[in-house]
Amino acid sequence: MKTTTSTAAAETRPYSVWVANRTNLIILGIGVLVLIIFIVFPFFDLTSWTRRLVEFFCYLALAQLWNLMLGYAGLISVGQQGYIGIGAYTLWLFSDIIGINPLISVIFAAIGGVIIALPAAALVFRLKGGYLAIGTWVIAEILRLIVANIKRTGGGSGITIQATSRMAQDMGAEGWMPLVYWWALASAVIAIAVTYLLLRSRTGLALKAMRDNDLAAESTGVNLWRTKLYTYLIAGAGCAMVGAIEAMYSLRVHPGSAFSVNWTAYLIFITVIGGIGTIEGPVIGTIIFYVLRETTSQYGTWYFIALGLLAIVVTIWSPAGIYGWVIKKTGFMLFPLQRKLRFAREGETPAPLASGGEKAVA
Amino acid sequence: MDWLNAIIQGILLGGLYSLFAVGLSLVFGTMRLTNLAHGDLTVLPAYIALIIVGSTPRFNPLYAIPMVMVIMFVFGYLLQRGVLNFVVNSGDIAGVIVTFGMSIVIMNGLQEAFTANSQGLDAGQIENMSITLSDQLAIGWLPLIIFILAVVVIAALQLYMSRTKMGRAFRAVSDDQEAARLMGINTKHIWAVAMGVALLIVTIGGVMMGIRTTFNPLLGADRLIFAFEAVIIGGMGSSWGTLLGGVVLGVAQLLGALVFGPAWQILAGHVVFVIILALRPRGFLAKTVTA
Asked: Was domain A18-343 assigned CATH 1.10.3470?
């Protein structure tokens, strides 16, 4: 509850800066409750649902990170599959070759993602806009071709991860799947928490300024390059982590699927439909995507054609997506990121319910 | 001799890549739109040619090229007016998302209609004819024709851009949309024509490639990336640069295949692209400064 109430020289009325309102606190409470339900979920032994939720959380985490880059830093990457693949193969490397517990190797996968993302950023950031997008794709292709051409990694036909397969066999599905499930849940929570905290921080202000107008942001002292780099590294680490979790889930790594550009197709679809540039958008998008996938994916290519058409239609006619439409209609945000200025009425001391981390500037 | 052969074949292959690259570059140049469906739009004309000539060839697919060019021009014009014109001024993100969506639709649409199996166009004798230079060195007529076509197309495009009224309109719209509009230029029409011309050029490469090797719906991604790499290596905004870029890429790929084995062909091209991007990010013959 740290908010500065200030009176500017030119202002006669005192004002306060509001970030959250009472509804947000109630929602936060519900959110914590939902999270607890999700944490204890595997104890109720609904293995098929646990499996489904693993994938759901993976998509959610990926979409959240992609949205952080696209919606805030204006970085269009169509090459996140490169990091997903690197994460999967780093898990294999650390658990099978080096011999570290796969559940811990996930952390190394995230580090591996950062190690790749640093030089990749130095390269692709030389390009701009749409060409940067293709540049990220080239990086992903390079990673895929390297992995597919090395014999040790099983080449183009992929390889079974021995360590995870052994653990899955020893523990049985009901013992192993919850562990993977908790990692997947953790990745989604981390992705949302990191995005939220980042956006509420100083860097977040820079990101939002960049989203709205990068030229104006730069002229007010935002270091565009560095801010973009941060988001790219975070997304690289996160995607690699999810890739590792996916590998633990499927017990196999395969260059064709781990480095598949279909990942990007899913991410574009989820984020665009849900709403670019909001935290809630990807959540809504993932739910819709998941329902669609569970009900229509047997139609194969038609399902992809429908996804592509929907992304086109939404981008042209409703670029803010479903959640953008909700905000426009109701002005309500689940994760409050906007700062609202509220003036006190005559003779009233402003008392904000809750506030952001920063001081209001008079 | 192997080396010389790889270099010559690489140069000829580069001509083909530059045919793909010119279209990408033209669209980007006139409307700052990065067309991620470009690769799939190079695969599409091969399938249209396949429909025209039929699976048991009614006539040589080479004769079908003009007809496919007209079809692709009209298709490009309508695609631009019907869909892409809406996102030209909405920034990079909207353009990338819409064209990526288009790419998915075209790729999966082709897969649904023609299966993922590889198909070929049979042009008869010319496919095997070659000029023998020595015992180990021969230049195929078909790759040579493709290369010559690439040079002719680029020269023609240069003339078109500098000498015709439409070409002037392209450049005007590219330089300053608002001013061009004030001068009475219908920018929507110009963009649509630019997309039509880009696809018309791409058709030549797409169908010729379909004759030279086989094709399947999944080739779009690689084609897009090759075109992009040729544009960046050559330098954005320069037509002859795209030819140079294509040649550099083609030679890099075939030399890579020669030294490290065929599995490394594409990777070798990517690596050379990355090195050039690191050392000379504006390419060899860049004209435009803004991206």
From this structure: yes
